[in-house]
Structure formats: C-alpha cells, structure tokens
C-alpha cells in the first residue's frame, strides 16, 4: 500500500519489513537448531519466535498518514533494538554478532527515516547497547577489551546512520529528478505523437529489417491499409516495399488510388529509416495555386505595361485622322510603330516565359556555342566585335536547351552593351568548369553598375531603368535558367555589373 505523495518512503518501509522478517526467521531457526548461549535456556528461543511473530504483524500494518508512518517506524526500530540487545544479553556478548546486525538495522532505518529521526535511531541504539553492557558489568563482569569494542561499535552506529542518510537523500533527489524528466519526456512524446498524427504527409518508420516501428493515420490512409508495428512492410504494403528496394521516388497504390512521392531519411546508427509519403494530387494542387497566383500578378503587370503604349497608339491614330501635314503624320506614325514594337516585345517575352517548361537539353560545347552566338549577335550589333572579350578555361561542356541559352545570353549581353563604356574589353564573358558537374558562365561590364537599393529587384518582372525596355529581360533569363536546372545570380562587383550562370555539365 503506497502513501499518497510519499511513494518512495512507503516502498522503503515495506522492504524494511521484509528484511526484519528474514532476520527474525534466521535467528529463530538458529536458536531452535543450534542453540545460543546457555543450552538449557529456552528464553532466547522464545524471544526470537516472538520477534518473528511481531515482524509478521509489522509487515501487515499499513499507515494511512505521514504521522502514522513516522510513529510506526519509530516503534519498529525501538522494538528491533530492544529485542536484539536483549538477545545480546541472553546469548552472551562474547559469541554474539548482534551488535553488527544492529548496524544493518540502523542503516535500513536511516534509509526510510528522515531528518533528525536518523540521529534519534543512532542514539537509541547506542543507549540500548550501553545499557546492556552496564547490566552485564553489574551482574557478570566484563573484560577491558570489550569496553573498547563496544565504544567503537557505538561510534560506528552514528557513522552508519549519517552516511546512510546522506546516500538516501542523494538517491531521493536523483529519483525525483528522474521522475520529473520522465514526466517531461512523456509529455514531449505525447506532443510529438499528436503532431505526427496531424501531419498532412504520411510518416512510416522502419527498422533495418524493414519491420514497421511506427506510422501515422495519414500513412494508413494513403496506403489503403493499416500497418502493424513489428510486421514487415511487405506484408501489408508490397508496393511501398518494392519502391524502397528499387530506390524509387514515386509509387502508385491501387488500393487507395493515390500516387505517392517518397522521401527517405536514415535515422540513428541502427539502420532505421524514416519514410515521408506525399500525395501527388496535393503537390500538384499547390503547384497550380502558385502558378495561378504568379499568373495573376504577371497578368496585372502586363495589363499595366501595355496600357501606356496602347494609349499612345490610340491617341496618335486619332490625331492622324485630322492631321494634314506630312511631317506631323510621319511623327505620329513613328509613335504608333514604336509603341506597337514595345507591345510586341512584351508579348514575345511573355511567350518565352510560357515556353520555359518545354526544354530540349543538349550537351553543348561552351566555347563553340558562345563563339557562334557572338558572331550572330554582331550582325545586328557591331559593338560586339569591339567591346566583348571571351575567355574560356579548358574545354567545358554544359547541358542546356540551345534556344533557352541563346535567349539568356542575348538578354545579358544586350544589357551589358547598353550600359558599358563601349571600349575594347568593356564586356568580358568568362567560362570556367567549377567541378566535374558544374560550369560557370559569367558576363561582366564596366558600366555604372546596379545601385544597392535595386539589387534585390533586378529579377522582378517589369522592373527597368531603361525607358525603352520592357523590364522582362532578366526575369525571362532567370525563368529559363530555372527550367534548365541552372542558377542565374547577380554577383558582387566593385565596378559595373556581373551576372553568373551556373549550369550542369552532366545529366
């Protein structure tokens, strides 16, 4: 029976009671079989049998309150000391080991007791042993060395009591700390389990042998079956097991009618693996939402950008109807043509963004491709042959869509020529192999550069400082780079602007 709020002490006193019963049983057995002290005296045997019966009674007693607990402990220790010291006198101290047995009893009492009770137990035991010694001195007489032995034993009682109490207090503190941390760990485990259960993705944990260690309800929903902990995954979800063995990232589950995307992570040193199951329908829905949102923003920007040139065209067309002067008619015609060309460029750039996903990647020789591109670009922009310098390190190759790469180079080179100083070497194109899988293509110019306040906006659609530009060139270039698994970035540069395209050189 455990006391509310005092569980460790209640368990300890029960163990203490079992210890008392064992000692009483052994002493009773020895007294009956072998005899102690005076062989003709049955007083020792009767005392030990009475001690055994009392030990049984103590074991059956259950205190209800803390006060009853302390009173019960004090009474039991006092009875132990009285019986054992009486046994010392009856059996004869010269041949008795009871004084040392009292140390064990005192240590048990110190483990169960608290505060000053422990010193009280040691004092009680010392007084009882000294009283027994005094009685023997008066009635029988003792030798001098026995006085010394008894004094040392009495000092040992206090040492054992204090040391045991210190160890017991330390053990209780550690137990309380362990219980507190265990409760915190239990709460954290429950929170983690709730989070995992509410995840939109399925979660399955497998051990090194492929047996299920844990799964959440979403995984059972996606797989169309319930997984049993300890059972091999192949018994319930053979499709998932086959996909994991073949290291596939996608699996079709006919039972649930879902196509799942798999993500696998190894956890710990025992070979456990954590499997995330994502529903492709939800992934595609999210992608559609993102595309629709981006399309909405792009459409709004297109409408805003087209409105101004369209208004100019409309106004110029209305003036042309009433205008009779040839010079003014030519001027109004140029306005119509320039703004129509601006609208055409906007439409062309938007179409390029729309075709970004239709890539036909090829393994291109970087030097040959860029050299040929510069030759074609020079046909309508002669400044290329005067200002552009090409430097290639080694013989790098890159895997890219030919039309997309030409579009990116055209946008970047057009910007560089527009803002450079138009001197020999004003624009530098450098191609370098970063490693076995990546190639860097960098275009630098010696122009005024990009102000720090605008660096974060250079890749946003319709952001431009050129009144004749559409603001879609760099945006289209980055989108096409992303479509080819490449990365286009603006580099930090002390002078001018520098753009770097990092592309793959392998599949």
From TrEMBL:
A GO molecular function held by the record: kinase activity
Location of the Histidine kinase domain: 301-507
Coiled-coil stretches noted in the UniProt entry, renumbered to this chain: none
Database matches in Gene3D superfamilies: 1.10.287.130, Histidine kinase-like ATPase, C-terminal domain, PAS domain
Listed SMART domains: HATPase_c (SM00387), HisKA (SM00388)
Enzyme class: transferase
Membrane-spanning ranges: 18-37, 43-61, 73-91, 118-138, 150-168
Pfam families given in the database record: 6TM_PilS, HATPase_c, HisKA, PAS_8
Documented EC number(s): 2.7.13.3
Stored InterPro entries: HATPase_C_sf, HATPase_dom, His_kinase_dom, HisK_dim/P_dom, HisK_dim/P_sf, PAS, PAS-like_dom_sf, Sig_transdc_His_kin-like_C
Catalysed reaction, written as an equation: ATP + protein L-histidine = ADP + protein N-phospho-L-histidine
Key words of the record: Kinase, Membrane, Phosphoprotein, Transferase, Transmembrane, Transmembrane helix
UniProt protein name: histidine kinase
Organism listed in the record: Uliginosibacterium sediminicola
């Amino acid at each position: 029976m455990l006391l509310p709020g005092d569980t460790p002490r209640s368990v300890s006193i029960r163990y203490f009671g079992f210890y008392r019963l064992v000692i009483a049983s052994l002493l009773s057995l020895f007294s009956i079989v072998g005899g102690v002290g005076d062989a003709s005296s049955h007083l020792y045997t009767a005392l030990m049998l009475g001690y055994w019966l009392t030990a049984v009674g103590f074991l059956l007693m259950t205190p209800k309150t803390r006060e009853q607990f302390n009173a019960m402990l004090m009474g039991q220790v006092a009875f132990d000391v009285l019986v054992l010291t009486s046994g010392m006198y009856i059996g004869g101290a010269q041949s008795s080991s009871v004084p040392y047995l009292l140390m064990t009893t005192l240590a048990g009492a110190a483990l169960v007791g608290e505060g000053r009770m422990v010193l009280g137990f040691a004092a009680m035991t010392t007084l009882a042993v000294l009283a027994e010694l005094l009685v023997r001195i008066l009635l029988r007489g003792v030798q001098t060395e026995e006085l010394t032995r008894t004094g040392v034993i009495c000092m040992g009682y206090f040492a054992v009591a204090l040391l045991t109490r210190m160890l017991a207090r330390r053990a209780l503190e550690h137990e309380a700390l362990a219980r507190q941390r265990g409760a915190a760990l239990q709460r954290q485990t429950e929170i983690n389990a709730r989070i995992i259960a509410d995840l939109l993705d399925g979660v399955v944990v497998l051990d090194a042998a492929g047996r299920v260690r844990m799964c959440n309800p979403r995984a059972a929903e996606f797989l169309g079956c319930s997984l049993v902990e300890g059972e091999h995954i192949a018994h319930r979800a053979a499709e998932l097991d086959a996909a994991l063995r073949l290291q596939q990232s996608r699996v079709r589950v006919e039972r649930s009618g879902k196509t799942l995307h798999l993500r696998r992570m190894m956890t710990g040193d025992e070979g456990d693996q954590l499997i995330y199951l994502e529903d492709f329908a939800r992934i595609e829905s999210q992608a559609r939402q993102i595309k629709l949102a981006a399309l909405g923003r792009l459409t709004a920007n297109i409408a805003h950008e087209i409105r101004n040139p369209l208004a100019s065209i409309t106004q110029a067309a209305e003036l042309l109807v009433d205008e009779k002067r040839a010079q003014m008619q030519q001027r109004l015609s140029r306005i119509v043509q320039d703004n129509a060309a601006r609208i055409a460029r906007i439409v062309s750039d938007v179409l390029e963004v729309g075709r970004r996903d239709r890539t036909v990647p090829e393994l291109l020789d970087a030097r040959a491709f860029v050299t040929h591109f510069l030759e074609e670009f020079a046909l309508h922009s002669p400044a290329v042959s005067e200002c552009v310098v090409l430097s290639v390190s080694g013989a790098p190759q890159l895997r890219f869509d030919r039309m997309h790469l030409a579009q990116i180079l055209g946008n970047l080179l057009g910007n560089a020529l527009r803002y450079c100083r138009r001197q020999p070497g004003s624009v530098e194109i450098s191609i370098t192999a970063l490693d076995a899988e990546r190639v860097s293509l960098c275009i630098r110019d010696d122009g005024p550069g990009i102000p720090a306040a605008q660096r974060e906006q250079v890749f946003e659609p319709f952001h431009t400082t050129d009144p004749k530009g559409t603001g879609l060139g760099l945006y289209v270039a980055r989108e096409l780079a992303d479509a080819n698994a490449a990365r286009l970035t603006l580099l930090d540069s002390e002078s001018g602007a520098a753009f770097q395209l990092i592309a793959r050189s392998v599949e």
